[in-house]
Amino acid sequence: MSVEIDIAGLPPERIVFGPSPLAELGAMLHVLAEPGHHPGLHGWATATAAGLRPDLADRLTEADFLWRSARSDLLLPAVPRATLAEDLDGLDRMDDEQFVSAAFEVTCSSSYERPAPSPLVDAAQRARVRELSAARGPRQAQFTDRMLENPTALRAWLRRLLEDCEEAFFADNWQRVRVQLAADARHKADLLRRRGLAEALAAVSTAASLSEDGTRLVFDKLQTGRAAVHPEGVTFVPTAFGWPHLIVLHRPGWRPMVQYPIAAPDLPRGPALQLVQQRMDALAHPVRMRLCRTLARGPHTTGELATAFGLTPPEVSRHVAVMKKAGLLTTRRRGRYVLHQLDLPVVARLGSDFLETVLR
């Protein structure tokens, strides 16, 4: 599975890198709503949440489905601007139908391939938005009703909320990270110019690559999506608060945007999605689970395993081959014997690898 952005015929200068205050605020709000996603930011999230005024914390809860489980497209501007006020001015220039559709994309859009009509003009979509928002809780349902009944007033309310976040915690944190984000963007742009797009993508994320024919950006994600080539290009936005999420905005008609983390906590980098799936599949078989119990305790030959479990050597060899291909075993030779052992550090990382993959 992957998300792909078509760039066939797109001039390299239209692939741009730059930080966005609104996108970084969206990342911070997500960390506050889901600190469990971000093991390296628990201290920041706890201290920041403790310092919020009660009324601001309540208002953030009202609107948190815009950034909790997924990031609303409203918080992912494809044109980086210098200040949060300029980013919010860009939102103000959107018409109500476009704004509301983007706001509720996180609850009601089942596929980016088939854009849903605005709930402001489509009764079925309006009912769907209300139903799905109600499942998030009464505060979120109330927020949805206010948006649908008076989008102008709710848009002004949301802008004030984000401006209050700037005063409460964003301004200080943005001042701290913006130089680092700008430096990273310049570095990636320099890689693109000097060494080409493939190397720039490799520096962005292990989950980002260029297709063999050079016409598509490919992002290793637990979803499938495709964006057509956009005349204005593609924007890459660095974030200091985003790990492990790699966000790809590929909304039809919108300029594609990728928000990528510039740093991770002190954890090894996770493998690709396919390898995580392969390892989990390898361990799902009951016979291989039984073999793991023995191989975790020490090295064994194929013959020893066959005798211990009442299997034929070819059967054991087939199971061992599957686990070796998935990188779960270490193998060493002792004379004419080949000894296999479970790679405990790899298996121990499966939990965090799985989480990093599904949160990507």
Short description:
The chain has 360 residues and is α/β, with parallel strands linked by helices.
Report on the structure:
The protein is α/β, with parallel strands linked by helices and 360 residues long. The protein has 16 helices and ten strands. The protein has helices at residues 21-33, 42-50, 54-62, 84-92, 96-103, 105-108, 123-134, 138-149, 151-195, 197-204, 273-284, 286-295, 302-309, 313-325, 344-348, 350-359; strands at residues 2-6, 15-17, 208-210, 216-220, 225-227, 234-239, 247-249, 257-261, 329-334, 337-342. The strands form three sheets. It has a four-stranded mixed beta sheet. A four-stranded mixed beta sheet has the order 2-6-8-7. A hairpin with a 5-residue loop joins strand 3 and strand 4 (216-220). Helix 1 (21-33) crosses helix 9 and helix 13 (302-309) crosses helix 14 (313-325).
Blueprint of the fold:
Layout: E1 2-6, E2 15-17, H1 21-33, H2 42-50, H3 54-62, H4 84-92, H5 96-103, H6 105-108, H7 123-134, H8 138-149, H9 151-195, H10 197-204, E3 208-210, E4 216-220, E5 225-227, E6 234-239, E7 247-249, E8 257-261, H11 273-284, H12 286-295, H13 302-309, H14 313-325, E9 329-334, E10 337-342, H15 344-348, H16 350-359
Number of extended strands: 10
Distance between the termini: 12 Å
Strand arrangement in the largest pleated sheet: 3-4-1-5
Structural class label: alpha/beta
Provide the gyration radius in Å: 24 Å
Query: What is the makeup of the main sheet?
Result: 4 strands, mixed
Catalogue the unreliable spans.
none
Shape: elongated
State mean pLDDT (0 to 100 scale): 86
User: How many DSSP helices?
Assistant: 16
